[in-house]
Amino acid sequence: MGLAGGLGAHSIYVCDGVSILLSSVQHHDQPKAERAAGAGSSRAAKQSAALVSAIAVLILGIAKLALGILTGSLGLIADAVHSGLDLITSFLTYLAVRLADRPADADHPYGHGRVENLSGFIEALIILGTAIGIGYEAVRHILGGQEEVIPTAPSFGVLLASIAVAYWRSRVLHHLAVRYQSDALAADALNFRADVWSSLVVLGGLALVAAGRAFHLPALASYGDAAAALIVALLVIGAAGHLARRTIDALLDRSPTDLTPRLIDAVAGVPGVIACQRLRLRRVGGYYFVDVVAVADRTTTVEEMHRLVERIRQAIHAVEPQSDVIVQIEPAPLVGETILDRIHQAARELGVRVHDVQVHRVDDTSQVKLHVEVRPGLSLDAAHGLASKLEERIAAQNPDVSAVHTHLEIEPEVGEVRTEVTALEPELVHRIHALASSVIGSGRCHEVHIYRRTGQGRSLDVVLHCTFPASLNVTRAHEEAERLEQALREALPGLGSVLVHVEPPEGEMPLPAT
Question: What are the residue boundaries of the structural domains of the chain, listed by start?
């Protein structure tokens, strides 16, 4: 049996009753206009942040380079060169966030978010190289001494302004990077934090130079400035290495070690899930693609399965809202599944309906009897073959079963036209009431309906409503209904179908005679 269809934003595939795959995307829960507005807001915020950063770096870099040349400060010149590198990385960030926010297409079904991961990796390498260069210069100055520098008030002013702007931009970029899960913005934030430290180092170096010149202590300026620069270089190298590793993990589809266990626990805790068989996670830009295989009761209907997938999706989004989720359900038998459960499941897998299923113990084994409903136009050979397949499947799934006996019946016609003729058959209604009173007790049968099927001549169907004590065991009630049906058929052989509806009365009644 195969079924393919769509349910809103979800897809369902059923193959031979083995597995069901439903997919859903988190942003499908939002109206289209709202999604577009949200995406536009995110895109504009990231691009604006990157552009403002590039402008700030350009202005400060030019100022530091001019003052470095005027004062002869290698620290200022080096910091200006660092700002030049910042300008390159800010430009890369701007390009990355523009490209990464492009929608998915045929060549990039997962979107273009990896551009941010790649940009973050390149920027991390640039920052790492700059930090290594600062460290090298620091070591060289410690070993060879530092050239004379003439500190001026504008130099201190530009450095203080640079520190303030870099700190402000690092805070803004870090906030946006966390909010939008952007590696490119995270790299830019790291770059500005490095600017803060490097500018502090240059500021401290200039302060030591000024103090050394005032108190005639040149060694203080040389070694203090170089030692501070070396410490900062090591800190920046560590931070850049951490960022580079994070971006490499994303580019190589490494599953986040902290997130995966939490998602597995969330899926396993969903009511109706037997186990989370597999969960695969990949990060693309600021989004996560989650592929889940969960195990559920194989007797679950398609509608129940759809609701189960919705609950799994919601559990994942509760842990990680920025996620695109695909859920596959694998069926499995429940612990304590009965032979009747397995028989009905086998029938569903073959696409047939069964009723009147009976299981008996015969010589320490089980034997099964059941009625199999087949289409009216089916040939005897095809109908027998279908019943034989069902018998084989029941026997294979239940080793204790020694025999399976099936009875072929025609599927009831859906929408069959009938006409109620109760008012036209007063004598028949009287006979049915009298017969019911003699079998189950006077007054128990309180309602009788008689129907004639279109094109069936005198064949009549009968529906009876009978009351039995509320405390009566349902097995006894069923036996009484069968006894009444049998009596009606024996007394009125021309009847078609007979349905005895049993119900409790408003008050207690004595048990019927056996």
Answer: 2-29+256-332, 46-251, 339-410, 418-503
